[in-house]
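Milestone M4 deliverable, item 7.
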Amino acid sequence: MQKSQRIILYLLILIAGASWVVISADTSGATTSGAIPAPQAGFAAPNFTLKTPDGTSYTLAELRGQAVLINLWATWCPPCRAEMPAIERMYQEYKDQGFIVLGLNMTYQDDPLKVAPFTQEYSLTFPILLDETGDVADIYQLRSLPTSLFIGRDGIIQEVIVGGPMSEALLRTRIEQILK
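Output delivered:
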């Protein structure tokens, strides 16, 4: 084969390959449409079921259609304590619009006997769930307390905030975004 024929053959192969890439590319920008559960923005929030201290069960998947704030916290955590009053105020303000807060106490690294006094001290009315085994902390890849996840009505995580305390202004902005 002559040099000019090889160049033409290589160019045809190159054009065919480039054409295949263009034709088969996903132009929607979201190949999974957030359907794969992952604890990060743009993905479905991993499902879990936890109980409150009085034994009531909550399953995240059953809250689809509501805007959800998951707040992972512990009684010994100063930033957790600092942001609780603002979270409670926002819950009271937006709960009638389909907003719910799930306060997930990291009971496996906390004193379970301090949870009830903590909720009474801060007059918390949103559900407090107990992660007694650390399983939810594992699936949400908890690295620091507090950690908060803002989940849209479609079950997709809109934002993850690690650390705190969150200000009331930040909470209001994020809540209004997930209520849309």
